[in-house]
Design brief:
- Helix content is 68%, strand content 0%.
- It is built from 68 helices and two strands.
- The radius of gyration is 46 Å and the shape is globular.
- The chain starts with a helix and ends with a helix.
Length: 1487
């Protein structure tokens, strides 16, 4: 055969052979084992290379297809397993430089022109070369080839559109960068590495890194891989810059360039001509030709931050701070913002500003974090070089303010943290542009602004210069500006910061600041208020500032020095006399009938200061006995509608009336502050001893009415505004929110003095402002703001709400009225007729509805029982045509109200409210639903109604309903309505909404019947009526008539089934108890037997499979369980062995049904595991079925079948772990029942299966050669299986020798214990496994003394494993926390306890005691234990030393090795000193 293929080499070189044939021959020669050529691999590779080289040098003409196939051929060779095996076996394959050069040329062509001809195959060839170390040598040996390749690869990636990048390109870049990093590590010429990186790689790598950082090429489906690869490439690029540009050998050159040092000892050689490395780098960086104009700014900015970071990483150390700073101005100069002139802010776009400010922030943070700026050193040694640079940056930032950009605020914050003097000259401009005049709306920007203001205040507070800072703030506020365009000075953020600062200030600084604000107000604003809107707005800003200062200063108290108290009192008197009273005087004589803006703002300012002064004055009076209030006491004062002069001395009553009249024209801050003043007056009145007098109460009522009525009109506007909670931001838009907040926050004071109309008004506002339906998601910053909806919702859920009985009652009535109005809007007939049929919908008083029970207690017309009047009326309406029909929108509205009702504490309602709400909810539930209501909405509505009815009937007033209606009538009304409505539910039987609805209905009906039993309300009569109704119901009649299933209503059948089974579930346990006389149970027993038969018939109809693959719904499983429970209860009640014939026949007639369901459940159990409700129902059925042996099939063992079915559930890999953990408790309950009743054979089956799961030959036993560390860490079986097995084993062993007579069976336990791992466990796992192992050993020691006679070596072998594991876990670690020490201590105590048990069996263990001590000493010498662990173990081993006699001690001293001998000597000395001496001392006093 060799002769046949020997001419291939000639044919490949022959000109007569076609290229098609050549490629086929070459491919065949490569893959065929029958082709023998000398050095075949090298020959074939050289042929393909020479062909491509000849083509690209224009010496050979080839078709494009042939060229592509030649590249693919080389790629196949390079990636073939055959080549890899040859190289691995030491064979040499040479790649010629010509091949590498044409690969580089093709990549360069792709980079420049974007031509993708053959590029995929070329890149794969390149990847093949670089990924094979033996072939990659050709690149690593020729550094210039690698640099050229890497440069062109990076340019290729940068210059391609996002979608056109070839998939392999980044993998090749990753490989090439990895090889180049190895070259840099081996490079001995720093100058060459620096030159290569700066000349060829710096620019493309910077652009590539920028594009990767921006996620340019992250593609769907490959996102995760791309992100990982992107991160790796970026890290490699940084490593290339670090190894090429910032080498340790270049430090002297950087120093020479940056520090201008003329050092005479500069190294010669390679370094002598490299004088300006930083200049070289920056020249390449700012060159405009290497990236698109749109990218250039971003690339340069991001690169500046990177280069500074890498410079610091490489060269920063103590003593190099100045060098690291000198780089900073050079890099900063590369940014566009460094070259801006005064009026050139708009020269840069917002995106450019954002990018460059982020970079400036990073640069400044690097300075701060690395402590590069030392203020003293800079001033003394370096002529403030750093300070001047930072001043330049600060001036740039202040002159070109960029308040919408968060990074601008953060840069200023870092500068002031470095040195407050940097911004001191521009402090006024800083406060203006960053706070007073800043327009900040975005959340992140607000947070950045807040952080800056906080830093400013904290800095000046530490310097004790807060008054100086406030002087600048006041200067900015008072200088001419368009005040209407300014945002509130003290919005939420600045106000919070200022409050925190003021709390820390000393009283003297606070008073200085307070006086300064008063002085500025009086001198610069107050004289010029007349007709000047700007000045009026400034007055409002200063008033907000004064309010913040006064409200957040530390209060005077008994410990405050007297000079501070007197000074404070003087400032308070001056403020009232010179500021508050003059401002109020401006409001007395308005210039015209139409209020002007300036006067409105003056009124806001005046009333804010009045409220602030009154509040602070009251606080000082209460807390400081030395403070003398200027307000007159309220005792004996004539109580008029407005009595505010008692709070503000010097303002007459008639003046207040004018002010109130003027303020009433605006819904702004002034009105809010006036309400606060009235509230303050109420508090002052309530603090007087005479507050219960008639005059005081009348005054309190008038004040409360004023507060409520003040904002009544604005609350009716239904604003959606949000308020930040600051007084200074109350405006016409936010006033309703502030007003409602004030009312709700102080309802505990107001509610007692409100008239019924006002209480009803508050209830209506509360209901109207509650959020209904889906809540709209707001922005992040609005989450902390206050809205009407948030206030009302919080109050509705407040525990105080039910305590305010008048408001709670009014709210209940409002909800009732709203629900009734929606119901009445759906009336099909005249409203007068509806009011006769459903009078409670039109009743405005709960008490009237509640008193109906008294009316019904009287005699009624002949033939009608009084209590049944309402029920019969409702029943007739349900059966005929209910007068109300609701459509979709009405249903949505009622659902919103039902959500409100669900938040109320319905179970604690008083009787009148309870009856009214029961009738209202029942009316809703039986209302007819229109065609526009989708089934899902109708189901949700009915589910909610019956949930609330059930909640109501679990309340304390549930009995009151039965004084109005019979329980059987309620049962009939509900089910009649549901049977009629069920035909419109177009839902699947396994729809979760439908199943939930059935569950709710079943619970409601069951609780209704339970209530009948608890109250003993005509049980036979009620249950007979219920049974008769169910037997005559339409679904039952259809089921009994055996009509075709498709013509019947499956939903109605399920409702009927739920009703019947709940009836069985209630009657069965009740009759079992037999608490009544014999006659009643006999009648009820007959009813139960009848119901059981009916339920069985309906169940058999429902269990007919509807389609192939049909599964049992949870409703049917629950129903079968309830039927069986009633059936079995009836069976037992009829006398056990002496069973009545009827009952036995019933059970037998249903036996086939139960067995059929049992079989189906066993098949479906794994599928039901994911459905919690169905699975629990199935386990409940299996439990009941197992406890009824008369139902068990005769052929198969029920125990075996159920056990194997449960095993399939636990072994099913498709069931998630979380689901398995959730169902474990239910399975545990089932197993408990099974094991209690199971036979010995059943128990043997369980143990056999468990021990098969714990196969000692397969679990943790491995070949000795494979027992390395990794194998030990990888445990084949989960410890969750081991724990229960050990528990079962311990439980079995505790049964003693009577249960386990064969000693061999007990000794098998030692083999099991030896297979359980104790190494490499997590603390929780260790703490779980160790006690279980100890329990098994303890059970053997205590309960199997005969086994211990021969098994002591095996016992000690297992016990020593426990001792040694405690030593390993309790050793002191070099690094790490002691979080797991409590677990180890717990285990060490168990070891000590086991030592004590062993010592108590001295006769058996004395022979082994020296060996136990030797084993202990051998292990303890290997570790250093925590003292607590060591103490416990020593206490245990002392007990074993008690067993040792003197020859044993001599034996140990002689036989132990020298190192162990020292350990034993120390141990024995401690034993004699602490343990033996103590016990011998105790023996002296022992009789």
């Amino acid at each position: 055969m060799a002769a046949v293929y020997s001419g291939i080499s000639l044919k490949l070189k022959s000109k007569t052979t076609s290229w098609e044939d050549k490629l086929k021959l070459a491919h065949f020669a490569w893959i065929s084992h029958q082709c023998f050529l000398p050095n075949k691999e090298q020959v074939l590779l050289d042929w393909a290379r020479q062909s491509l080289v000849a083509f690209y040098k224009k010496k050979l003409e080839l078709k494009e297809d042939i060229v592509e196939r030649l590249w693919i051929y080389i790629d196949n060779i390079l990636h073939s397993r055959k080549l890899q095996n040859l190289l691995k076996n030491g064979k040499t394959i040479n790649l010629q430089i010509s091949l590498v050069k044409i690969i580089n040329e093709r990549v360069a062509e792709f980079s420049l022109s974007g031509s993708q001809r053959n590029i995929c195959a070329v890149l794969r060839c390149c990847q093949g070369i670089l990924s094979t170390p033996a072939l990659a040598v050709i690149y690593t040996a020729k550094q210039e080839l690698m640099v050229a390749l890497l440069s062109q690869l990076c340019w290729s990636a940068c210059r391609q559109p996002e979608g056109a990048v070839v998939a392999q390109l980044f993998e090749v870049i990753h490989l090439a960068l990895g090889h180049y990093l190895l070259i840099l590590q081996q490079q001995v010429n720093p100058r060459r590495a620096f030159g290569d990186v700066t000349a060829h790689l710096l620019q493309p790598c910077l652009v590539l890194r920028h594009l990767l950082s921006g996620g340019t090429w992250t593609q769907a489906g490959q996102g995760q891989l791309r992100q990982l690869l992107s991160r790796d490439i970026r890290s490699q690029i940084e490593a290339v810059f670090r190894g090429g540009i910032f080498q340790p050998e270049l430090l002297s050159s950087y120093k020479e360039e940056l520090l201008d040092q003329q050092q005479g000892h500069v190294k010669t050689g390679a370094m002598k001509n490299l004088l300006a490395p930083m200049d070289t780098v920056l020249t390449r960086l700012v060159d405009a030709g290497y990236s698109a104009a749109s990218l250039h700014t971003s690339v340069v900015a991001n690169s500046v931050a990177l280069l500074y970071k890498l410079f610091l990483d490489s060269y920063f150390k103590e003593g190099n701070q100045l060098l690291c700073f000198r780089v900073l101005p050079r890099l900063f100069g590369c940014l566009k913002i460094s070259h801006l002139q005064e009026e050139q802010s708009k020269a840069l776009s917002t995106s450019d500003w954002t990018t460059e400010l982020l970079v400036v922030e990073q640069l400044l943070n690097s300075v701060a974090n690395n402590n590069i700026y030392n203020i003293a050193a800079d001033r003394i040694r370096h002529e403030e070089a750093q300070f001047r640079f930072y001043r330049r940056v600060a001036e740039l930032l202040i002159n070109h303010a960029q308040a919408p950009i968060p990074a601008w605020f953060r840069c200023l914050k870092t500068l002031i943290s470095l040195n407050h003097l940097i911004l001191e000259p521009d402090l006024d401009d800083l406060l203006a542009s960053a706070w007073i005049d800043a327009e900040v709306t975005e959340f992140r920007t607000k947070k950045a602004q807040e952080a800056l203001i906080h830093t400013v205040f904290q800095t000046y507070a530490k310097l004790r210069q807060v008054p100086r800072l406030f002087e600048e703030v006041l200067g900015v506020i008072c200088r001419p500006a368009a005040e209407a365009l300014r945002q509130p000075v003290l919005a939420s953020g600045p106000s919070t910061v200022l409050s925190a600062c003021l709390l820390e200030l000393s009283p003297s600084q606070i008073l200085d600041t307070w006086s300064l604000v008063l002085e500025k107000f009086q001198s610069l604003v107050l004289p010029y208020l007349q007709s000047d809107a700007d000045m009026a707005l400034k007055s409002l800003s200063l008033s907000s500032l004064l309010h913040c200062i006064m409200f957040n200063m530390r209060s005077l108290d008994s410990s405050t020095p007297l000079p501070i108290v007197r000074r404070t009192q003087c400032v308070m008197e001056r403020m009232l006399r010179e500021l508050v009273q003059p401002l109020l005087a401006l409001l007395l004589d308005p210039p015209g009938p139409e209020p002007e803006l300036w006067l409105q703002k003056v009124s806001d300012s005046a009333l804010l200061l009045s409220y602030t002064w009154a509040q602070v004055d009251t606080m000082f009076s209460l807390n400081c006995s030395q403070y003398r209030s200027m307000s007159r006491p309220l005792i004996g004062v004539a109580l008029e509608i407005s009595n505010l002069p008692s709070l503000l001395p010097g303002v007459k009553t008639q003046h207040w009336k004018k002010i109130e009249k003027f303020t009433a024209q605006f819904s702004t801050l002034g009105r809010y502050c006036l309400e606060q003043l009235y509230l303050q007056k109420m508090k002052r009145t309530l603090m007087q001893a005479s507050f219960r007098s008639e005059g005081a109460i009348q005054s309190l009522r008038c004040d409360a009415a004023f507060i409520i009525g003040s904002g009544r009109k604005s609350l009716n506007q239904r604003t959606t505004a949000s308020w930040d909670g600051q007084v200074g931001t109350v405006s016409g838009l936010t006033y309703p929110v502030a007003h409602w907040h004030l009312i709700v926050s102080n309802l505990t004071i107001l509610i007692s003095y409100l008239c019924p109309d006002d209480v009803g008004y508050l209830a209506s506002v509360l209901l109207r402002t509650l959020p209904m339906g889906k809540a709209q998601e707001g922005s992040i910053d609005e989450e902390a703001y206050i809205t009407l909806e948030k206030i009302s919702k919080a109050f509705l859920h407040s525990p105080l709400f039910p305590e305010m009985q008048s408001l709670h009652s009014a709210f209940l009535m409002c909800v009732t009225t709203s629900c009734s109005s929606i119901l009445c809007s759906g009336a099909q007939h005249d409203s007068g007729l509806v009011s006769q049929q459903l009078p409670w919908l039109f009743e405005k008083d709960h008490m009237v509805v509640g008193h109906w029970e008294n009316r019904f207690a009287k005699a009624g017309p002949e033939g009608i029982e009084p209590r049944g009047e309402i029920a019969q009326n409702l029943l007739s309406l349900v059966k005929s045509d209910f007068p109300i029909q609701l459509e979709g929108e009405q249903l949505e509205s009622i659902l919103g109200l039902l959500e409100v009702i669900s938040a109320l504490q319905l179970d604690s309602l008083l009787q009148p409210y309870h009856v009214h709400y029961f009738l209202l909810l029942l009316s809703m539930a039986i209302t007819k639903l229109g065609c526009s209501c989708p089934s899902s909405l109708a189901l949700k509505f009915l589910t909610t109604c019956y949930q609330l009815l059930g909640y109501l009937q679990r309340g304390k007033s549930a009995r009151s309903v039965f004084k109005t209606m019979y329980g059987s009538d309620i049962f009939e009304i509900v089910l009649t309505s549901l049977f009629r409505a069920s035909s419109r539910f177009l839902t699947e039987m396994d729809d979760p909404a439908w199943l939930e609805f059935l569950q709710v209905i079943g619970t409601f009906l069951e609780e209704l019947m339970q209530m009948l039993i608890q109250m003993k309300l005509s049980l036979v009569l009620n249950f007979r009526k219920i049974t008769a109704f169910l037997c005559s119901s339409k679904p039952y009649m259809e089921a009994a008539s055996s009509k075709r299933l498709e013509n019947q209503n499956p939903q109605g059948r399920q409702l009927l089934l739920v009703s019947l089974t709940r009836l069985c579930h209630v009657l069965g346990p009740f009759l079992k108890e037999q608490k009544l006389g014999q006659e009643a149970p006999a009648a009820l027993s007959e009813l139960l037997q009848q119901v059981v038969l009916q339920t069985g018939a309906v169940l058999q109809l429902c269990l007919v499979p509807e389609a192939q693959g049909w599964r049992l719904p949870s409703v049917l499983i629950s129903s079968v369980s309830m039927l069986m429970e009633a059936d079995l209860g009836q069976h037992c009640r009829d006398g056990g062995a002496d069973i009545s014939q009827g009952s036995d026949r019933t059970l037998l007639s249903h036996a086939a049904l139960y067995q059929s369901v049992y079989s189906q459940i066993l098949l479906e159990l794994p599928a039901l595991a994911g459905q919690d409700q169905s699975f629990r129902a199935a386990l409940q059925f299996l439990t009941l079925f197992f406890l009824a042996p008369e139902l068990h099939p005769k052929k198969d063992s029920v125990f075996t079948s159920m056990f194997h079915s449960v095993r399939r559930v636990l072994a099913d890999p498709e069931i998630p772990v979380q689901v398995t953990q959730d169902i474990e408790p239910h399975l545990g309950d089932l197993f408990t029942q099974m094991l209690e009743v199971g036979t010995t054979e059943d128990l043997r089956l369980v143990m056999q299966c468990i021990l098969q799961g714990l196969d000692v030959s397969n679990m943790w036993k491995a070949d000795v050669q494979l027992l390395n560390r990794e194998a030990c860490q990888e445990q084949p079986v989960s410890l969750t299986v081991v724990g229960p097995v050990l528990d079962v084993l311990a439980a079995l062993l505790r049964q003693g020798e009577e249960a386990i007579g064969n000693p061999h069976h007990v000794s098998l336990a030692f083999s099991i214990l030896l297979t359980v791992p104790l190494d490499h466990l997590k603390p929780l796992e260790y703490g779980s496994v160790f006690p279980r192992l100890h329990n098994v050993l303890f059970s053997i020691l205590q309960c199997h003394p005969k086994v211990m006679l021969k098994a002591i070596p095996s016992f000690l072998n297992s016990f020593n494993r426990l001792v040694f594991s405690v030593m390993r876990e309790g050793r002191q670690k070099d690094k790490g926390s002691t979080d797991d020490l409590p677990t180890v201590l717990k285990c060490a105590r168990l070891v000590e306890r086991m030592y004590s048990h062993i010592a108590a069996r001295a006769e058996e263990f004395t022979v082994f005691s020296p060996f136990m001590v030797a084993q202990y000493v051998l292990e303890v010498q290997k570790v250093t234990l925590y003292p607590a662990v060591k103490s416990l173990l020593q206490e245990g081993i002392y007990l074993i030393l008690d067993l040792c006699i003197e020859p044993d001690i001599q034996f140990l001293r002689a036989s132990l090795q020298p190192g162990m001998r020292d350990i034993f000597k120390e141990l024995y000395n401690d034993y004699l000193k602490y343990h033996r001496a103590k016990h011998e001392g105790e023996k002296r006093y022992t009789a």
